[in-house]
Design a protein that fits this description.
This protein has 140 residues and is an alpha+beta fold. It contains 6 helices and 5 strands; from the N terminus they run H-H-H-H-E-E-E-E-H-E-H. The relative contact order is 0.12.
Length: 140
C-alpha cells in the first residue's frame, strides 16, 4: 500500500513542475517513489490499476524526465529504469540479476570540480556506475 508521505511528495513534485495533477500521474509517480526507484516502465505499469495503459506510463515518464522530476537510467542492457531525482548518488549494478543499489560518496564530486579546472569546461554534472556481482548472485 502506498504511504501518505509518497502521496504528499508526489502531489508536491507535480505542483512544482507545473503539470496538471491527474490520477494517472499521481499513481505513476507514487509507484516510483514508494518503490525507491529503479523500475522499468513495465514494472511500474504492473503496479497500477488496469485503466492506466502502458502508453500512458511511457508518456508520463517522458514528461517527468523532461521536467526533471525523475531520471532515466540506461545501463546498456536495452531497458531503462526510472528513479526520482533527489540527492546526488551513484549506482552499483549486478551483472547477473541487474539489481541496482544506490550509494553516496561525497568526495566523488571533487572529480567534477577537477575536470572543470583542468579542462576549462563549465561542467554541469557527471555519472559514475559500478558493475559487479551482488552477494546473492555470488553465493549461487
Amino acid at each position: 500500500m502506498l504511504t501518505v508521505d509518497a502521496e504528499q511528495v508526489t502531489k508536491l513534485k507535480l505542483k512544482e513542475s507545473g503539470l496538471r495533477i491527474t490520477p494517472q500521474r499521481v499513481l505513476i509517480l507514487q509507484a516510483i517513489i514508494s518503490s525507491g526507484g529503479h523500475l522499468t516502465a513495465e514494472e511500474i505499469h504492473r503496479q497500477l490499476p488496469p485503466f492506466i495503459t502502458l502508453a500512458t506510463v511511457y508518456n508520463n515518464l517522458k514528461s517527468f524526465v523532461n521536467l526533471g522530476i525523475i531520471q532515466e537510467l540506461s545501463f546498456g542492457n536495452g531497458s531503462s529504469k526510472y528513479e526520482v531525482v533527489d540527492a546526488k548518488h551513484y549506482h552499483v549494478i549486478c551483472e547477473s540479476c541487474q539489481k541496482i543499489v544506490d550509494f553516496n560518496y561525497p568526495r566523488l564530486t571533487e572529480v567534477e570540480y577537477a575536470a572543470s579546472r583542468l579542462t576549462d569546461y563549465d561542467v554541469h554534472h557527471h555519472t559514475l556506475e559500478f558493475y559487479g556481482l551482488c552477494k546473492e548472485c555470488r553465493n549461487k
